[in-house]
Amino acid sequence: MLRKNLAAGGAAAMLLTLVLLAAGCGGGGGGGGGGTIALLLPENHTPRYEAADRPDFQAKVKSLCSDCKILYSNAAQDAAKQQNQADAALAQGAKVLVVDAVDAGSAASIVSKAKAQKVPVVSYDRLITNSDVDYYVSYDNTRVGTLQGNTLIKGLKAVGKPTGPVVMTAGDPADNNAKLFKSGATAALKAGGVTIAKTYDTPGWLANKAQDEMQQAITALGNSGFAGVLASNDDLGGADIAAMKSAGIKPSTRPTTGQDATVAGLQRILTGDQYMTVWKAIKPESGAAAQIAVALVKGDSVPSGLVNQQIDNGQKKVPSVILNPVAILKNNVNTVVKGGDVKRSDLCKGSFASACSSAGI
Ligand code: BGC
After folding, report:
1. Angle between helices 263-271 and 234-246 (to 10 degrees)
2. Which of these, 106, 83, 96, 180, lies nearest to 135 by C-alpha position?
3. Cis peptide bond upstream of 47, omega within 30
4. What is the model's pTM?
5. Which ligand 1 atom is nearest residue 232's CA?
6. 358 close to 350: Cβ distance less than 8 angstroms
7. How far apart (Å, rounded) are the C-alpha atoms in residues 15 and 331?
């Protein structure tokens, strides 16, 4: 019986191998093989990475190449740790690195080590500058800032303060995206005639730091000394709103921006505490990175039509997939739910049920 089962198991395994080989997913190396892909994400305090980027990327890779192996690491906002994680991935036989860099500049050494071993690197979400990176997959990050700036102008008009001034809590200056968000937003505010009273760059995108920055701004400007807040993401926006509340300011009177369409950010939009967020659906982004990584690991060419821009990273024009972000206000929060990035049951639980139903969700 045991022998019969083993024989049957052996035959099944052989059949599976043949099927996988026929599907171009068998073995490693050379044209057409599966192999090991490493995904390196930058931090775990912003909800998107563990809740969406990681599982969505893994699912897409598995759907394209069932015997591809995925190594995953999260650097918890530590650039040196990310370097070690990249070294470990290479030592464990990774044939492609997909890197969302903690530090846009120092991550260039991750790229040079990988390239020295003929391992291609996909720069995921954040561009690795001055490096020989092979592909870049992201959203139009300057446009994210433009949407934040222009929508904030709308909010300022609505509260009767069309020229501000506003406080800006921008993201981590080591993140290339933070610079792009900030420059897009600053240009939009300037073009709209809005004054920026205080600007902060928030180390590590940390909410507690943003809350301190906002507290300092309120102390310096006084409770009535600012009309709105340009926050570069939802975590920073939430922190700014917390600082306003502890100073006795009603957040709905000071339109505040965000980004990521997090559950907490959308809930604040529904209750009127936050004015807007920017939605960057994760599945198209992680899916494009997965398609490129699988093609590279198999030695296939990248699906045509995927690359839609060449972005200069200071060293070369990087073939890039650039997606379009969407501004979300109270009237279109439902778009994010319909898009599948946020579950209605998470968004509308407990005290948020009535806000959801009045917004038609
Ligand atoms: C990402 C944002 C994220 C932020 C903090 C940026 O590079 O594009 O979506 O909120 O980093 O992790």
Report:
1. 50
2. 96
3. no
4. 0.91
5. 10
6. no
7. 54
**Residue 125 near ligand 1, beta carbon < 6 Å:** yes
Mutate to test the pocket of ligand 1, among 48, 142, 209, 323 (most ligand atoms within 8 A of CB): 48
Mutate to test the pocket of ligand 1, among 175, 232, 236, 263 (most ligand atoms within 8 A of CB): 175
CB 85 near ligand 1, within 6 Å:
no
Q: What is the C-alpha separation between 361 and 356, in angstroms, rounded? A: 5
Tens digits of residue pLDDT in 177-186: 999 999 999 9
Q: Is 43 in the pocket of ligand 1 (CB under 6 A)?
A: yes
**Which residues does the chain have with pLDDT short of 70?**
1-33
Count of beta carbons in the 10 Å neighbourhood of residue 78: 16
Cα dist. 284→115, 145, 259, 321 in Å? 26, 20, 17, 10
How crowded is residue 337: how many other Cβ atoms within 10 Å of its Cβ? 20
175 within ligand 1 shell (Cβ under 6 A): yes
- And the tokens for 228? 């709105």
pLDDT at 33: 60
Tokens of 109: 């050494």
Q: Are the beta carbons of 178 and 231 closer than 8 angstroms?
A: no
153 C-alpha to ligand 1 centroid (Å): 23
Sign, CA dihedral 17-20-22-24, equals: negative
Closest CA to 109 of 92, 130, 123, 135: 130
**pLDDT recorded at residue 34:** 78
Q: Evaluate whether 200 touches 232 at the Cβ level (below 8 Å).
A: no
218-241: per-residue pLDDT in tens?
999 999 999 999 999 999 999 999
Residue 205 CA, closest ligand 1 atom number: 5
The whole-angstrom separation of Cα 18 and Cα 123 is: 34
Any atom of ligand 1 within 6 Å of the Cβ of 176: no
Q: Calculate how far, in angstroms, residue 14's C-alpha sits from the geometric centre of ligand 1.
A: 45
